[in-house]
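Quick one, tokens below. Sequence please?
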């Protein structure tokens, strides 16, 4: 056993010595591999946290992880969105011991804001701000406070862009044109109590008001609203909790079927189409989860990961051509040396191993350097506060970039690089192993 270990250690030492003999060549090959690993690690790290950050930000902005919406069909056949009585819903949540952190109730309306002849189209979200303390922490106000909004029943918070467009300031009163939940025209008046930071993803299209006044404009009665959001203590429990709650609700109220299959069709779109495709009367409930909403985002992540793998293979395909050519040059330079070693008894298999050891060590060095550089870059980027007003806000966590790369992904990338490097070096190493000692010693190269 000692002899076997000794031979292996000797081979390793020889391989390391050979690498140090041509330092420039070794550094260039390792640097090429390090660059490839650096790029792929940055992409994988970004996509690893992409879905997590987007899910968290959406759950906060949409006020929940599980959503229940009431859809009522009127006598005229018109579909109306509202929840008239949520006692049954609350009983089901309690009976199923849903681990909720917050339960939110919201009403939304599409409205036209008017001030001194200028107009702006807005989605106005009405909420009970006493129950949405966590949400207020996610919105950055440049002027005013949520306390001002709560103190003024007709208060509204709009984005900087919209405020600039209609030239409205804090304290100004502006008209609002909207439709009631049954479709009649209605007019009201808001008082601007705050201005929020613009974000291309939500700031310019959503305004926030008190649910009591929004419901009044929608002609909803006290206690009625449009959608319920259940914010869970642990987002990882969304699917399990949703499945149990949905199955229980089906026994209590009329529910639209959930589209939770693996079809290419978006489950939210499929669920919305049910209103027109199915025959039904009275009140039915639509049930969806954050994971349903995030299905297309997950598809984007899958595409990015696939693209990263393709980039890795193409990049290392190019690098491997360089590895093969380099080891062919090494073979030419060491022909006499190989002949000498073979003449004193070194077996063909050991000659082959020496070349493969060198290739493997170059891969290890390149991967290690690439991972270190990627790690340093990630740490630097994670320290920068990009702010909540950046267009990329939804991709970040509280304004900071985050990176998440599972250990298996690192080992997978290392495995791919090692296999490709060994494959590239195999043919030159095999040719070196087949050299006849006498022919190698007579070589003039």
């Amino acid at each position: 056993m000692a002899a076997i270990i000794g031979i292996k250690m000797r081979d390793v030492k020889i391989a390391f010595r050979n690498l140090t003999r041509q330092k420039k060549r070794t550094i260039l090959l390792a640097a090429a591999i390090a660059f490839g690993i650096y790029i792929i690690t940055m992409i994988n790290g970004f996509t690893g946290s992409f879905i997590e950050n987007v899910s968290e930000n959406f759950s906060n902005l949409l006020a929940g992880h599980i959503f229940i919406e009431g859809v009522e069909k009127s006598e005229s056949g018109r579909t109306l969105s509202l929840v008239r009585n949520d006692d049954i819903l609350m009983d089901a949540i309690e009976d199923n011991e849903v681990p909720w952190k917050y339960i939110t109730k919201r009403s939304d309306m599409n409205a036209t804001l008017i001030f001194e002849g200028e107009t702006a189209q807005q989605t106005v979200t009405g909420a009970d701000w006493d129950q949405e303390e966590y949400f207020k922490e996610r919105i950055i106000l440049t002027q005013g406070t949520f306390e001002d909004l709560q103190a003024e029943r007709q208060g509204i918070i709009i984005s900087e862009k919209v405020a600039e467009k209609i030239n409205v300031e804090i304290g100004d009163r502006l008209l609002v044109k909207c439709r009631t939940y049954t479709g009649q025209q209605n007019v009201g008046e808001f008082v601007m109590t705050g201005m929020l930071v613009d974000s291309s993803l939500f700031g310019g299209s959503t305004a926030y008001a008190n649910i009591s006044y929004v419901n009044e404009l929608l002609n909803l009665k006290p206690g009625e609203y449009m959608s319920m959001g259940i914010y869970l203590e642990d987002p990882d429990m969304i699917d399990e909790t949703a499945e149990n709650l949905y199955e229980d609700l089906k026994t209590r109220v009329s529910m639209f079927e959930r589209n939770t299959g693996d079809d290419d069709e978006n489950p939210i779109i499929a669920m919305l189409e049910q209103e027109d495709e199915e025959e039904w009367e009275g009140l039915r409930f639509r049930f969806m989860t954050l994971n349903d909403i995030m299905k297309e985002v997950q598809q984007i992540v899958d595409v990015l990961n696939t693209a990263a793998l393709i980039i890795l293979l193409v990049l290392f395909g190019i690098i491997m051509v360089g590895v093969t050519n380099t080891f062919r040059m090494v073979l030419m330079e060491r022909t006499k040396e190989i002949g000498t070693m073979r003449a004193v008894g070194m077996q063909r298999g050991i000659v082959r191993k020496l070349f493969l050891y060198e290739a493997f060590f170059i891969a290890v060095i390149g991967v290690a350097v690439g991972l270190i550089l990627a790690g340093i870059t990630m740490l630097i980027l994670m320290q920068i506060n990009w702010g909540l007003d950046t267009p990329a806000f939804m991709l970040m966590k509280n304004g900071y970039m985050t990176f998440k790369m599972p250990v298996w992904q690192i080992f997978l990338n290392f495995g791919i690089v090692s296999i490709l490097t060994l494959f590239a070096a195999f043919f030159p190493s095999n040719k070196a192993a087949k050299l006849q000692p006498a022919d190698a010693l007579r070589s003039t190269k």
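The chain is about 55% helix and 20% strand. Residues 1-7, 200-204 have pLDDT under 50 and may be disordered.
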